[in-house]
Structure prediction request, 558 residues.
Amino acid sequence: MQKKWWHGKVFYQIYPKSFKDSNGDGIGDIRGIIEKLDYIKALGVDLIWISPIYVSPFVDQGYDIADYQNIDPIFGSMQDFDELLEKAKALNLGIIMDLVINHCSSEHKWFKKALADPKSPERNYFYFRKGKEGHEPDNLRSYFGGSVWEKVRGEDDLYYLHYFAKEQPDLNWYNEDLRHKLFEMINWWLDKGIAGFRVDAIMNIVKDLNFPGLPKDSGSDGRCAVNQMTARLASKVGPFLQEMNEKTFKKHDAFSIGEAFSVNPQDLEKFIGDEGFFSSIFDFSTRELNESFPFCYQYRPISVKDFRESSFKAQLRANDIGFLAPIIENHDEPRGVSYFLPAMWQNSQGAKALGTVNLLLRGIPFIYQGQELGMTNTQFNSIYEFEDLNAQDQYKACLKQGLTPTQALAILNRESRDHARTPMLWDESTFAGFSNTTPWLKVHQDKEILCVKAQESDPHSTLNYYRKLTALKHDPAYQELLTYGLFKPLENPSDFTICFERVLDNKKIQVFTNFDTHSFEFTVNNKAQVLLSSGKGCLAEGKLKLNEGSVAVLYFED
Ligand code: GLC
Ligand code: CA
Prediction:
């Protein structure tokens, strides 16, 4: 494997709207991030991914971009951004931006020109099509519900394509001018000195230009979820990604990470091998367990065993190919502690053990803001408390399916993306130190226990444990092993344990976590020493006794 500068690094994802509000409007901003750089540094991460801060009408929380080369005033100015970049650099923290190029906002000047003038070059930056027999051109269902086609106002039978909201028209990657414009924009940011990009929804850029649609799925609307089409076309996306890499990331030795669902296992090397399209792609294997279901009322809960089996499978596949990026949550997911763990371990003990798995699996781990505090899901008491457009769509779909409002709310309380988007908890004050006014999204019910201020001073807090984890990842004695060491499953005595090892030459690190209701005894190498642990466990004469809710990380040389 060719060595790259990003190997061994740990990333921290910031959702800027919810991180820190510096000017009292209830919305997080760039100056808020600047205020908290020391906190981020002290967490021991190397790079920050900032979700979109570009000019946007915020139909999809900034993932609908109206101007790729300017900062939305809600977040501050380009001067603020430059200052952030500079101050982060001084702390040796890199910044990667979000690259949302499957679609833009319907407020982008390209789309406005395309609508205003059918003869404009911009018209071909998008997909405009006539209907078929009085219907939309195909029967695909957008990610956020309803058809992927929206009628062009004032035209009889003309539609444009949007895989997400109707305010997010898809960009036509088959148009060379458009690709050129996008690559120019990417290089402009890289020239500014950012370390790279997280590349949004990228598998969707490939289309079947005949727009044939697909047989209807289990929904009652006669449609088929658009992700099924994307999955079918997955092996055709290569040339676009290769071109983008060659014309942008590669030239700058930039880090790139794809939000790439449905990659065929046989294509993994093309994506993340030495000459791959990306430096890494997220491991969404647990998410993919529910991918075939179009509506979240159909999702089945994901157990510790499901998590273990699917992520182990992904790890084994990537072992001699490249690095996946392990996550337990992001801004599109409920909190991992609430989602994957049994109720009794949805607490600090569970958070530490799950965090250990997240950071010590092979790959480039991402920590999502608040994860290091052990944040769980926020309790939403009514549909009106949700902000996400997807929550609103899914709620309607639940009711249409005959669920009661109480049942629908319970489903959103398990699945909604808004769980990850509630304000970061800095202290125990009314607005959690996030803002001095009512925040745009409600504050978590357990701010007193979960907040940074309470955890700073407690040596046994989740936050201080995460700091030990990042320190271990960077410890020169283990860094090689924790970066390049192969992943191997260990024997798991229960459906509620996650045990694995990392192996390099004669060196081994073994991770034991126990989310069960009783303790286990493991036979281990008698030279093993404990590098890190939480909860109760003891190691003596080649036996590790690990109590329920505990984690232990062992090291030995054979
Ligand atoms: C990605 C983003 C998500 C957004 C969607 C459309 O999945 O992570 O937040 O809604 O793309 O841009
Ligand atoms: Ca603000």
